[in-house]
Amino acid sequence: MRRSAPYCLLIVAAALALMSFRLDRNGKERESLLYDVRAAFVAAWGDVPHPLVAKTDRLVNEAILSTVRTTPLPRAVLAVRIEAVDFIPTIVGVRRSATVTVEAIAVANGDVIAQGTFDVSAHAIRKEAVDGLLAERIAARIGREFKLELEPSTAFATALIAVR
Fold it and tell me: What pTM does this model have?
């Protein structure tokens, strides 16, 4: 039994080394939704809370403004519709979910060049905070899909304003 202990350690070490090995995908990222997004418009029906719509609009447009494209890409505008918002009370806190439809519209001719629908949800302890968290989740999902910078670039002027 003592002779098998070094072999077991060798097998475990080899397995750990092989599990950490991963092949790259030729260094290419998925570029199916890569556009030069110029602006976004967020809309919803009257039953959707206004703070959710306003914060989503602000966050997506901030991400668009902070994104810099180095290669020329097709220019697009995003039309975001927040649909079917559900408010679900839970044992601890509240949960809100929404169905969101995003259309990428070509600036050149007005055609819809991409469209998608996704569901997103957020959970918060306080009822007042759940709309803000849901807006952040929606903006993060749109940012991931369209390769937008979610954090604004920090410059000296913005750092001074943030200190206040």
Answer: 0.71
